[in-house]
Automatic annotation (TrEMBL):
Residues 192-317 form the Thiamine pyrophosphate enzyme central domain. Belongs to the TPP enzyme family. InterPro entries: DHS-like_NAD/FAD-binding_dom, THDP-binding, Thiamin_PyroP_enz_cen_dom, Thiamin_PyroP_enz_TPP-bd_dom, TPP_enz, TPP_enzyme_TPP-bd. Its cofactor is thiamine diphosphate. Keywords: Thiamine pyrophosphate, Transferase. This is Acetolactate synthase.
Length: 540
């Protein structure tokens, strides 16, 4: 006879989530979801609570990204769920397997005007892979299992369930959760062989590897394929660090000449979006390798686009035995361009100026960040510099908002990263604009003993808007913030620590104090408002 579990709705939901490796809950307290808290409390299941629901979802997403397993956010009904929509949408664009369990007004009074009565599912369905209302208590565990299976099936993404008040508070039973069974998509072997042949026989091939290579646990296979065919590798998103910066095939600064001169560009595990010039690479043929057929580009015509499990596809490419071309001269030319780019960056990162340039901040950060530090970008202009000047040494150590570009990820990502790695450096890079979205949740970090370092590039403007408006119209509006605002005092008032830096020589010592503090610590660096990240290319 099959084993049966019994309990109230919260206990059934948590039992099913645990079977998928879920080890913690992020939430903002709400009465509609009390049984989920009760189930967690009675089993020592960690609960981390926040000051805004979007932070809970971003924290769950950070866990999902870093650990490549589901992250769980629990949100109360109505505004609790709608406050989490930006987080869910970011998870959707980032292929992050986040599960949001939402409260819901009681079904038996539906239409009578209960507190926070709102039908979430039609709003949530377009930004999730699975969205449903659970109709009865006995179905909760099965629905959680179905939602998480869909979230983990390529192309991965978030799932949502709301549970009416009387359903989650009632008791029921369900079959005990077994081992998760996540389907694996097999690519067409002929398409894989065609992709391998194109890369192997090209005169000037390039690989660009993105977040799905990390999310699909295909880092080792990517390295094997690049090394077997001797193809230079560029990365974006969580693909960064897939090859360490010292690897002879790892490139970052030579992207423009590489893409302008390549005859084959192989993009793996990332969309052909604005970050990659929408897939238009001069005269190059495009190979687009994706983890599911739904991710194939429709606005360009790739030469071939294998779709399936990235580990298997890349392993097959590494085993290619057909003809191949010597790429040594191509790699040597790109290495010269790479070295020249690094020399230019080194000069920028040591600049002594009265008004601090963002590049100098990153020059100092490079000196203090450990190889396994998790670096989080939350911002526009200031974080664009981070993408240029910071080179992750290891995969799975870089978090940014992704192609949806949502500000306010910082504190949630920091919470999820600290929960994942209790002993690593966690560093959040924020523009002063982005700081306004989530800085209150520094209190959540303080209260729950989760130390992180926050570095704010404080130029007193919305940099991505002010400079373009000035160029287009000769004026700007709605683009100014308070100059010199003391964001460090905000964190101090919330129980953390911090300081303001006005001189370039003070940055390094301030960072050392921040990482040694053992509490949430904000380094508020006043930067040059006239310094704007160059927008001549959309490849950043």
């Amino acid at each position: 006879m099959a084993e049966v579990i019994e309990g109230h709705g919260g206990e059934l939901a948590l039992a099913a989530a645990r079977a998928f490796g879920v080890n913690e809950m992020f939430t903002l307290s709400g009465g509609h979801v009390f049984p989920l808290y009760d189930a967690a409390h009675k089993t020592d299941f960690p609960i981390y609570d926040v000051r805004h629901e979007q932070t809970a979802v971003f924290a769950a997403e950070a866990v999902a990204k870093l650990q490549r397993r589901p992250g769980l956010a629990v949100l109360t009904a109505g505004p609790g769920v709608t406050n989490g929509i930006s987080g869910l949408t970011s998870a959707f664009f980032n292929a992050s397997p986040v599960l949001v369990l939402g409260g819901r007004a009681p079904a038996f009074r539906w239409g009578s005007g209960s507190l926070q009565e709102f039908d979430h599912v039609p709003l949530i369905a377009p930004i999730t892979k699975y969205a449903a209302t659970v109709g009865d208590t006995d179905s909760i565990a099965g629905e959680v299992r179905a939602a998480l299976t869909e979230a983990l099936t390529a192309h991965r993404g978030p799932a949502f369930l709301d549970i009416p008040l009387e359903v989650v508070f009632s008791s029921g039973e369900a079959a005990a959760p077994g081992e998760p069974a996540v389907p694996v998509i097999e690519a067409d072997p002929d398409e894989v062989a065609r992709a391998a042949s194109l890369l192997a026989t090209a005169q000037r091939p390039v690989i660009i590897a993105g977040s799905d290579v990390w999310g699909g646990n295909a880092i080792a296979e990517l390295r094997a394929a690049a090394e077997a065919l001797q193809v230079p590798v560029f990365t974006n998103g969580m693909g960064r660090g897939a090859l360490p910066p010292s690897h002879p095939l790892a490139f970052a600064k030579a992207r423009r000449p590489a893409l302008n001169e390549a005859d084959v560009v192989c993009v793996i595990g990332t969309p052909l979006d604005f970050r990659l010039g929408f897939g238009e690479f001069a005269a190059a043929q495009v190979v687009h390798i994706v983890d599911a057929p739904t991710q194939r580009a429709t606005h360009v015509e790739p030469a071939v686009s294998p779709a399936g499990d990235l580990r298997r596809i890349l392993a097959a490419i590494a085993d290619h035995t057909g003809d191949r071309t010597d790429h040594a001269e191509w790699i040597s030319g790109l290495r010269s361009a790479e070295d020249a780019g690094k020399a230019r960056d080194a000069e920028a990162m040591t600049a002594e100026t009265d008004l601090i340039k963002p590049a100098r901040i990153y020059g100092e950060l490079r000196k203090v960040l450990a190889p396994d530090a998790v670096t989080i970008g939350d911002g526009g202009d200031f974080v664009s510099y981070a993408g240029r000047f910071l080179e992750p040494s290891q995969p799975g150590t870089w978090l940014d908002p992704g192609p949806y570009g949502c500000l306010g990820t910082g504190m949630g990502y920091a919470m999820g990263a600290r929960v994942t790695y209790p002993d690593r450096q966690i560093c959040v890079l924020m523009g002063d604009g982005a700081a306004g979205f989530s800085l209150m949740d520094a209190e959540s970090l303080v209260r729950q003993g989760l130390p992180v370092v926050m570095v704010v590039g404080n130029n007193g403007i919305w940099g991505l808007e002010k400079h373009p408006m000035q160029a287009m119209y000769g004026y700007d509006v709605a683009a100014d913030l308070q100059p010199g605002l003391r964001y460090d005092d905000v964190v101090k008032a919330l129980g953390g620590a911090g300081e303001t830096v006005e001189k370039a020589a003070e940055i390094g010592p301030a960072l050392e104090r921040a990482f040694a503090a053992g509490v949430p610590y904000l380094v508020n660096v006043l930067t040059d408002p006239g310094d704007a990240y160059p927008r001549s290319s959309n490849l950043a």
